[in-house]
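Researcher: Quick test of sequence recovery. Tokens follow.
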């Protein structure tokens, strides 16, 4: 006796249901593949960012002197600051104004009462910038203390250094020996401001700066 196989014909309704189920399965598969791809791209991007951060850190990292004295300086609002005493064992770097430049001497009411203030006045006159404003910037940035520093809370934990708080990440060309030296720091900062880079100092927008300008 022959065996007959009967092929069951699906009704149009069942065909539509089968197609819908197939479409749903394909959509789920595509969604899973998309999520896997997005996750993989996120992981790759994170690895690239970490590698770049390590490279940048190696490039701009500088050695912080081992002899450090820390004490609170509340007048340097709004960020928490520390004072650092640096060994001056490295030859100091002093920036000189070009010989062919004759800057305008800016007269000011400020009269130096100590060596640091005289250094500030001389640097401002050398580069032709306002003496009172330059002095008040030092008040706002460091309290006119050449050995001050402030550790920032940014991504790279950068350090603002010296009389004019020169940042070690954005200006690695300025060594610690220069940043913590009053004459070198003032001369470099006055040069930078004379070249229209004064916006790099947030101290200009501080209350300490405004109060100093009123009183000087």
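Model:
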């Amino acid at each position: 006796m022959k065996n007959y196989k009967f092929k069951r014909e699906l009704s149009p309704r069942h065909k539509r249901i089968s197609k819908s189920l197939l479409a749903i399965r394909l959509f789920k598969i595509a969604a899973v593949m998309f999520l896997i791809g997005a996750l993989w791209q996120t992981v790759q991007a994170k690895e690239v960012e970490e590698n770049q951060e390590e490279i940048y850190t190696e490039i701009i990292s500088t050695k912080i002197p081992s002899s450090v004295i820390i004490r609170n300086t509340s007048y340097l609002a709004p960020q928490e600051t520390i004072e650092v005493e640096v060994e001056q064992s490295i030859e100091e770097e002093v920036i000189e104004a070009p010989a062919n430049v004759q800057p305008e001497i800016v007269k000011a009411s400020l009269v130096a009462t100590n060596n640091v203030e005289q250094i500030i006045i001389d640097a401002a006159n050398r580069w032709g910038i306002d003496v009172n404003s330059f002095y008040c910037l030092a008040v706002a940035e460091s309290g006119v203390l050449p050995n001050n520093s402030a550790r920032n809370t940014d991504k790279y934990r950068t350090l603002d250094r010296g009389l004019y708080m020169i940042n070690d990440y954005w200006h690695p060309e300025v060594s610690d020996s220069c940043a913590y030296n009053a004459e070198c720091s003032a001369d470099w900062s006055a040069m930078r401001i004379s070249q229209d880079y004064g916006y790099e100092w947030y101290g200009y927008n501080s209350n300490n700066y405004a109060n100093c300008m009123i009183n000087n």
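Residues 66 and 86 are 8 Å apart (CA to CA).
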